[in-house]
Amino acid sequence: MIALSVNGKSYNVDVESDTPLLWVLRDTIGLTGTKYGCGIAQCGACTVHINGVATRSCQVPVGTIGSKSVSTIESLAQNGKLHPVQQAWLELDVPQCGYCQSGMIMAAVSLLKDNPKPTDDDIDAAMSNICRCGTYQRIRAAIHAAAGKA
Amino acid sequence: MNRIMTKQFNRRSFVVGSSAAGAGLALGFDLPFGPKAARAQEVFRAADGSPEVDAWVVIRPDETVVIRIARSEMGQGTLTGLAQLVAEELNADWSKVTTEFPTPGANVARKRVWGDFGTGGSRGIRESHEYVRKGGATARMMLIQAAANSWNVPAAECTAANGVVTHKSGETVTYGKVAEAAAKLEPPKDVPLKDPKTWTIAGRPLKRLDTMPKITGQPIFGIDTRQPNMLYAAISACPTFGGKVASFDAAKVSDMRGVKKVVQVGDNAVAVVADSWWRAKKALEAMPITWDGGENAKVSSASIAQFLKEGLDAEEAFVGNKSGDAKGALAGAAKVVETVYSYPYQNHAPMEPMNATAVYTQDKCEVWCSTQNGEAALAVAAEASGLKVSQCDVHKTFLGGGFGRRGQSDYVRQVVTIAKEVPGTPVKLLWSREEDMTHCFYHPITQCKMRAGFDANNNLIALHMRISGQSILATVLPSRMVNGMDPVTFQGLGAKGPEGEFGYNVPNLLIDHAMRNPSVPAGFWRGVNTNHNAIYVETFMDQLAHEIGEDPLAFRLKYLKPKHAAVLKATAEKAGYGQPAPKGVYRGIAQIMGFGSYVAACAEVSVTDGRVKIIRIVGGTNSGHAVNPEQIARQVEGSFVYGLSAMLYGECTVRGGAIEQRNFDTYQVMRIDEMPKVEAVVMPDYEFWGGVGEPTIAVAAPAVLNAIAAATGKRITKFPLKDNDLTAA
To answer: Which residues does chain A have within 8 Å of residue B273's beta carbon, measured at their own beta carbons?
Structure first.
């Protein structure tokens, strides 16, 4: 059994310690908002926060997490109120297929926490996730819209 | 979403059979009461018991309007657009509108009342707008009639707006209160539709209906399916296309933790079923499998290139468009220009890898999946399970990208085959990204020789376009071929017709196709054949203008047909073409007609030390009607990213009859740092209905390539761009 804190809740999961966090979240705990895209930390669809830091969960063995806290897309909205980044995403209607957007939003939340008013270059450097629908232009606009509010 | 329709009175018995092979379902009906007698009181109900006013519209007592969406939603926004069309004619209160996907099984059981579920070729709206609007209008008329009946007044004295029926006396009633009575009425026969110029819901840039679940991580995709006691399957198919499983050693992994079963799937794949996907995948990787690639194991990118090269000058070719005598005119031309191109295999690489979940028992098979073709998935489920179509159903989810890949049902066949081995237990099959990258139906590979002839006065008098390469239909829909020819090859190059007319008037024209089908399977890939066709035609036209010292826009306008010319001119004007570009910035233009729409682009790029920066692209679209201009703008932006990813990086190479690129590290795509500023010009002329999801993809690459040529003097003929050196010679 491996003890794990996800979205403020404690879990004991019966998995091998080398199991990537992604699959523990999706298949063991049942939090499917975090997505599988590549399994090699290329695409960012699996981005979660570990102790507040945006991390690609497909490359994190669950046994290495210990007491660190994990948060996922499901934890962003609080008491039915969207996070400012989600609110900006909603107002600009950013998603198309939507599959990459959990990871995009988690990466954007982390960026804005470190850098409340990012420039376009800052966004380019921080947001290396892949979107095949091509929503990049609206992602950039939504990050600027959420800047200072997150 | 995805509720199974239930019927209050099961008066009819349907006998349903499947053509099994593909999209079409051949249906036989047994109607003991006959259609007229059966209709009057028959009320279909949604899962919550709310009545259907007609097949497209369910109205709940709380005034929620549920609009049925037959087409798949994969990001292209069709769900919202179709709902707008129904709501427009329904005179619904848009704030009360929600949607649901009927199942393919329900469609078959109800004489295909929702029409075609297939979602590809940018057909979602342009081929169903009429019947979905009629669905909305019919329901509105029935709701008005029901209200009039309750007041005992003529329906002509009543009007409806915002979900409320009003009598001329001022009395009102909401749709929710009369829906039950309306559902029992005979539907009207004569259902006039509104003039699109009077639309107030359709035609407006309304917000998407599906954003909220996508920003909160809701389980809406096929891969998110969870069923009680569900098992997970990982699969590996022979890397060489056409190859088979030679042997595998299940005993080596059957003791690994969580492993339940090892299953051979068809003759070319092996799957491990376990209690988690990660355990299934680890066991699959640990299991010794040997493959028999057969003859195809000799196929390589070099052998395919040689095979296609022979087609460039072959005697025999299918003629797609011909006028005058191109070969004769070329022989007598004062000046001849020739360029040879090649375009590679590419993977769709949707972000959600292929997956499906199925549960099989001896009298039922249910599938949950992201699919662009629910009815084909149903037919495949029936065939693979050995059950009747009426014993199977498919629950469509949102798609994590489709791009044409999910029009195929290979993964549905696999999951049902696996589920049969564990009867009664749901199984989710998920492909690894590596499996997905190496088992696609790829963008077809082609080469092309363009030859143009000018007379002594620099008039373009002849054009011969010879395409050599792969037919998509030969791989995935051979029944649609015409006397051995694949008409889809000529997308954007046709003589006439609403789908994709060649834009240029050239007196002596020949466009032909020497079909060469390598062993790597080809499929529909967003933009399909317009991608390379537009590159070949539009970069060559640019070269021709340059050869005779004319401006690329002025040169094109001399030969372009009116609708093609109009969108190109408008796009160029919006981009500021004709005024000087900023220092170091170069412009390129392109146009095509594809998927029923006229589109153009004007790109601005800079090239520094061989590095291309795409700064801005203006994209123009005349899709006839514009059901949601904001969604069209999103499709322009997104299609440019997809098309430019392909142009910059997209290449699947072949070795040993297998694809070499296995993940996004070797199959790169555009990311946000390369995103140009995209400005969409939406210019509907209300004269036709064209598609939106695909057409503009084709003009992004040639516009950028022409801008690169303007900047560097280099004309790229071998794709993708990454294989070329743009540093100054």
So the answer is: none
